[in-house]
Amino acid sequence: MIKELAEFGKRIRKGHDALKDEPISVDLVINEDGSFHSFSVIDKISRPAEAITSKKGKARLLLDKASEVLNYSGFCSNIPENEKSEKQNKAESALQYKHQLFLKKLQLYKELDVLKPVFDFYYDNRENGLDKAFREFENQVGEKDRLGNIAFRIKDDRLHEQQVVYNAIIEKFEIEQAAQLSGQQKVCSICGKSDFPVLDQPHGMIKRVPDGQKAGCALVSYNEKAFESYNLKGNDNSSICTNCAKNYVEGLNWLLANGSENTITDKKGKEKQYFSFTNRKNLGSDTANIYWTREEESIDDIHLLDNPDPGEITKLFDSVSQGDKRTVRGIKPNQFYSLTLSGAAARIAVRDWIEISLDDYRNNIAKWFKEIAIHAYGETRYAPLHLLAMAGQNVKSVNDQTKARIATHLWNAALKNSTPPLWILAAILKRIRFTESSENGEIKDPVTPDRAALIRFILNRNNKNGGIMIKEQNDPNDKSPAIVCGKIFAVMESIQRAAQGKDLNAGIRERFFSFASTSPAPAYGRLMKLSQNHISKLKHDKPGLAVLLDRQLQELCNNIDGFPTIFSLEEQGQFALGYYHQKQQDYDNAKINKELQPLLENQED
């Protein structure tokens, strides 16, 4: 995994290892004599600057935070008077340490003539330089922009972007590398070479990790003796050279952040800005997935998982069925990679790693859509992955992580053709038994197309016995007891609604669905008696409909040899699917049969 991340980072990185693109928030404009001129706020740009692996105990040359550059901290003035002395002393001590690190780094480059105005700013002309800039900082720079990096500028030229400065940074970096390599025989565990040193230093922080620290998280970290072995200290244990470390860190940061700003118009006609990621998919509040290919190639098919378009899915089916799967001997096909991760305090928790060929990737996605297809209200529907993941989410819990866990398994199933665990089925059935009410108080249908699609998918993928696969729509040849029981329950509900109308306080679905789907024998004993009463009433009001529904009920009952005592978890899922398919069949029949029109009026879409 780290090897592929390092290879990707090498592909996208530009420039020398000693330099890295860093964001700039404010330009500190000074004159040739080092006196302060003004502050200029910058709008989201990044420029190459000295690369450092960690901010702890380090400062960056000519581009850093206000605490390092100006010895500034905005919180000291907010400390209550009775606590000010002790807390301010600690804060000022830490602040002074950071500022001294910045000045110490600057001293390493005092031979550069181009930096003389900066030295004058801090030393020879301090009163008109640093002191004046400190006084004007809060007046000229907004509170939000004070948190970003500050760069030195003379007229239109940023000093850290001067080629002579870059050359000096690179020269010092290479001298340090040579010194670190001297006498070292360590081979990097990633690249297999000894061209760069393996050091006990942070590899770099990964930012924008879901549920991680804002300052960033570490993918590789040995900060306790319990993690160390063979007398090695810290990151020496990883045997990752400085070059591979920079590559994987930059590659991972790029994949987590790459994207663009977009505009969307809401229902009220108002435009809203949102950020669209290119190589990242958020699976939940604490989980994200990043993906890429070994060689640059379009993988637009992956966006169909969240935005399924029937036309594009049909094209995918055609492409896969007509594709030439033969590969040239000796040439490795392009690979697709996917990494699922979460934040765990200051570390990254790797939840999953996928590595497959692009041919398998496309074949598996096509198979995924065939298996999640469901017939709904007269058409075939393909549910987005994020809606399928919500099928088992606990709606009462604001921070429920079930959705993220389900989404991770479904992502695997879509890309690797893997089998999702049965606990997801248990979560869906739990949601179905929890009868939801809409905003106006009406009872919603518990088995939605999304839930039915996911139940069908899980049951078919977990079918190890080679039996009949459950189809996307009603199959009259499927005589599985649980499926038939679900259909019988749906017909009984239709009979009740036709006899008593849609506005029921609590129909058999609300009172008996959970009972019938788990213990059918005792449940159907009572349900049969209720249905006969409802049919008797219906014969007086709508005799034609009563005959049709009674015949439908009898035909289904003839397909089952007694009601089972109890249903297993898988059979409970089959029951729910049988119920759903019968409801959809009634909907389709009502479209062409006038006698069944009352069923349409009493059925929710």
Task: Note the topology.
Elements: H1 2-12, E1 19-30, E2 36-50, E3 63-64, H2 66-70, H3 84-107, H4 116-124, H5 130-140, E4 150-154, E5 157-158, H6 163-181, H7 242-257, E6 259-265, E7 271-277, E8 280-284, E9 287-293, H8 310-322, E10 335-344, E11 347-357, H9 358-372, E12 374-376, E13 379-381, H10 385-389, H11 402-416, H12 423-433, H13 449-461, H14 481-500, H15 508-518, H16 520-541, H17 543-558, H18 569-592, H19 597-601
Parallel strand pairs: 1-4
Antiparallel strand pairs: 1-2, 3-4, 4-5, 6-7, 8-9, 9-10, 10-11, 12-13
Helix pairs in contact: 1-7, 8-9, 9-11, 12-13, 13-18, 14-15, 14-16, 14-17, 14-18, 15-16, 16-17
Helical element count?
Answer: 19
Evaluate the radius of gyration.
33 Å
Total strand count, please?
13
The oligomeric state of the chains shown is single chain
Helix/sheet category: alpha+beta
Q: Proportion of β residues? A: 5-15%
Estimate percent helicity. 40-55%
Main beta sheet, described?
5 strands, mixed
Structure report:
With 605 residues, the protein is α+β, with helices and mostly antiparallel strands. It has 4 domains: 21-170, no CATH class; 183-257, no CATH class; 272-381, no CATH class; 385-601, no CATH class. 44% of the residues lie in helices and 15% in strands. It has helices spanning 2-12, 66-70, 84-107, 116-124, 130-140, 163-181, 242-257, 310-322, 358-372, 385-389, 402-416, 423-433, 449-461, 481-500, 508-518, 520-541, 543-558, 569-592, 597-601; strands at 19-30, 36-50, 63-64, 150-154, 157-158, 259-265, 271-277, 280-284, 287-293, 335-344, 347-357, 374-376, 379-381. Helix 14 (481-500) crosses helix 18 (569-592).
